[in-house]
Design brief:
- There is one protein chain.
- With about 750 residues, the protein is an alpha+beta fold.
- About 25% of the residues lie in helices and about 20% in strands.
- Strand 7 and strand 8 form a beta hairpin.
- The longest helix is centred in the middle third of the chain and has 20 residues.
- The N and C termini lie far apart (about 65 Å).
């Protein structure tokens, strides 16, 4: 009933008010500065159609502040109000008067009621690293990226993990097994270092590593030693001792493993290699983000020592909590009885004994130890650029303690490295952690990965279900994005980790085949067959143009498929990449990096219908317009570009089509297109996307210089085609230089 009344109310207002012209957000175009400090004068702007409204009020904490027109441009009036930024976070919205009628504007747009819960919000003093704003991130699951140093490979029978021996996979291209956690392909830091130039050429601005610290699994979310890089990823300089006999599951006999991961020479050499890696990455202007697993550790951890690894090390270590009741780490864990020595009755995360839950509330020493570790890795000589926090909302035994811990964590990390970023893994509304004093942002599931997966593929992110009712459902998509994005402060939204897939979910390319399954019951071929690269290209264009930090999961650019974990952790196919997909990714990333407006511009929807979506990113001088058609037939759409600030008084306004994808491939050939009085009618082919650019300042017209103005059509072009394309690029670059 309320929705119906709201629709009737808006229909009454339609002849009087140009609702589409109403706009504001928390970017610097409308909020300056967009991340103010307490006591700073804050200018807040609101846009209307010229001479279209009578009064605009800025409403803050029930205070109504009259706003004044500060400027008029291209058929719009810009109202402005100023406040002195308070100490505490605050919300605001706008009240618009047109004759006797009143409406409101908040993060959801034009509303009949104020709905303060969806008001704009500011957290004074909340600053996120400027480098992370729209940064292109690249996630690396190290064991599967590249083997640069075979001498540090995990050896078959080196130790036992969950009652079975670990295995060294000799064939890099061997398909992933259903139970994969004990299989090691040999990827390491040297392998990533060898490919830093490849990543720089791809356009990567930051690497996010899955855990690198000493751990017995290939995923390494069961940390054994937070102070050291795993020598199997780093460097082994001392390599002595026997492997386990075929029949032996007792890791106290795994002398080779004990020497490799507890010997100080190996640990120090591995840490030194990581420091050198970061140095080399920084030379290429690539940042490095570490994975922090602080909710739980692993049963192999030196504080617990369930496997008695450290008890039997030749280097001195304190007794683990499993070993003896008088261990200095006793209170790091929760034990249910006093059955020492070798007490197996402790609290595991979700009941998993291999993942002992860290018992922070029992002792401040554990908290201080983790804070020390957090500071250590973002400080010299390691100089990492931030942390991704695993299951961050689960840490501790109460929400109150959780918030207290992360407040302290932020303080320690930011004091050590003010430019370090803090990204949390979180599903659901994270607003309570994003108030400026805990996390910087989150892995963006609710306002990115899930909505775009449902809209373009109809697939759940694990490939566990297909929903035909959600495939192409524009209303569900728009509502999901609008409501989920409303939970972010702008400093968080602009650096949110926007992923299509990752190590926990099926590959996006596999989702395009609409097949419900997992590797253990469907096999590798089911994940590879029938995939739709045109849909993948649409998704990547969306990823590279939507607000946030586009995050590429290693191998997506090479056409890697896979069901949810472990199949999504296939080795990178060096030498067998999908060359056309790789070229496309390079061009799409270049598109993103070429326009500042794609990092910090406003966003507005232009048009949506089933399977069709159009939106724009805009600032006071630049506009990017994106149109996607996921249907099997062409579509014609009328786009009201004037809502981005484009002039409505000019008969023809020129825009450049700077990017296009379709069922055949993609193109960066520029094509001039025209808007008539601020409106453009566009016909777009099936499974296609286009990106248009407009600037009011000619000096910005060459901002696409990194994008090669070339058509790429055939999949896997021949060597001769590659040489021809290279010559075209060289000639074009030379002509540009001469001009």
């Amino acid at each position: 009933m309320d929705l119906l009344k709201n629709q009737e109310y808006m229909l009454l207002m339609r002849p009087l008010l140009n609702k589409q012209a109403l706009y504001s957000d928390e970017t610097e175009m409308f909020l300056k500065p967009y991340d103010p400090d307490p006591g700073e004068t804050l200018r807040i702007r609101f846009r209307t159609a010229k001479d279209n409204v009578d009064l605009v009020y800025l409403v803050r904490d029930n205070e109504r502040i009259p706003m004044q027109i500060s400027m008029s441009h291209n058929g719009f009036d810009y109202y402005e109000g100023q406040i002195v930024t308070p100490e505490e976070p605050f919300r605001y919205y706008f009240e618009i008067h047109v004759g006797a009628l009143v409406c409101y504007f908040n993060r959801l747009g034009v509303c009949r009621d104020a709905q303060p819960m969806y008001a704009f919000s500011v957290a004074p003093g909340f600053h996120t690293p400027s480098w992370a704003q729209g940064a292109v991130l690249y996630q690396i699951y190290t064991d599967r990226f590249r083997n640069g140093d075979p001498s540090n490979d995990v050896l078959t029978d080196e130790y036992s993990y969950i009652h079975q021996h670990v295995q060294r996979i000799e064939d890099w291209n061997k398909p992933i097994e259903g139970m994969d956690v004990r299989n090691f392909y040999g990827g390491d830091l040297k392998g990533v270092m060898d490919k830093l130039d490849y990543l720089a050429d791809l356009g990567v601005e930051a690497i996010y590593f899955n855990p690198l610290f000493v751990s017995p699994s290939n995923h390494k979310y069961d940390i054994q030693d937070y102070d050291h890089i795993d020598p199997h990823f780093g460097k082994i300089v001392s390599d002595e001792g026997n492997l386990l006999a075929d029949w032996d599951q007792d890791n106290t006999h795994a002398r080779r493993y004990i020497n490799r991961v507890t010997g100080k020479a190996n640990l120090e050499a591995s840490n030194e290699l990581f420091a050198e890696f970061v140095k080399q990455a920084h030379k290429r202007k690539i940042r490095v983000i570490l994975d922090g697993v602080f909710n739980h550790c692993g049963s192999f951890n030196k504080w617990m020592d369930h496997e008695r690894i450290y008890e039997n090390s030749s280097d001195f270590y304190e007794k683990g909590a499993y070993i003896a009741e008088d261990s200095p780490y006793h209170n790091y864990f929760k034990f249910y009885d006093r059955s020492w020595p070798y007490n197996d009755n402790y609290d595991g995360w979700w009941g998993h004994k291999t993942l002992p839950k860290l018992n922070y509330e029992a002792t401040d020493e554990l908290r201080d130890e983790i804070y020390r570790i957090a500071k250590k890795w973002v400080s010299p000589p390691y100089n990492a650029d931030g942390w991704r926090l695993d299951v961050a909302a689960d840490l501790g035994h109460s929400k109150e303690y959780n918030h207290e811990f992360w407040k302290g964590f932020r303080k320690v990390v930011k004091e050590a490295n003010p430019n370090a970023v803090i990204v949390a893994e979180h599903y659901g509304d994270a607003a309570e952690w994003l108030q400026g004093d805990e996390w910087d942002t989150v892995m963006n599931y609710d306002a990115f990965m899930e909505p775009i997966s449902w809209f373009l593929t109809g697939m759940e992110k694990h490939s566990d279900s297909f929903r035909e009712d959600l495939l192409g459902n524009d209303t569900t998509f728009v509502d999901s994005m609008r409501y989920s994005m409303a939970q972010f402060h702008m400093p968080s939204l602009q650096i949110a980790m926007n992923e299509l897939d990752n190590h926990d979910h099926s590959r996006f390319l596999t989702r395009t085949n609409h097949y419900v399954g997992r590797i253990e019951n469907s096999g590798k071929e089911a994940a590879d067959n029938g995939v739709d690269r045109a849909v993948m290209r649409e998704a990547v264009v969306f990823q590279m143009t939507w607000p946030g930090a586009p995050t590429v999961y290693y191998g997506d650019e090479a056409g890697v498929c896979g069901f949810t974990d472990p199949d999504n952790r296939r080795p990178y196919p060096w030498g067998s990449e999908d060359k056309q997909m790789l070229r496309f990714y390079r061009a799409a990333i270049a598109l993103h990096k070429s326009y500042r407006v794609l990092r910090n511009g406003s966003v507005t929807l232009l048009h949506h219908e089933r399977d069709v979506l159009s939106f724009a990113r805009f600032s006071s001088t630049e506009r990017i317009v994106v149109l996607m058609n996921n249907r099997a037939e062409q579509v014609t759409a009328e786009l009201p570009l004037w809502v981005t600030g484009l002039s409505r008084t000019k008969n023809f306004v020129s825009l450049q089509r700077v990017f296009k994808t379709d069922e055949e491939g993609y193109s960066t050939r520029q094509k001039e297109m025209f808007a008539e009085y601020g409106v453009m009618t566009v016909t777009i082919g099936p499974k296609s996307s286009i990106v248009l650019y407009h600037t009011e300042h000619p000096k910005h017209e060459n901002s696409a210089r990194e994008i090669h103005n070339v058509d790429y059509r055939a999949y896997g072009g021949s060597a001769e085609q590659e040489r021809n394309w290279a010559r075209q690029r060289s000639r074009k670059n030379l002509q540009t230089i001469r001009k």
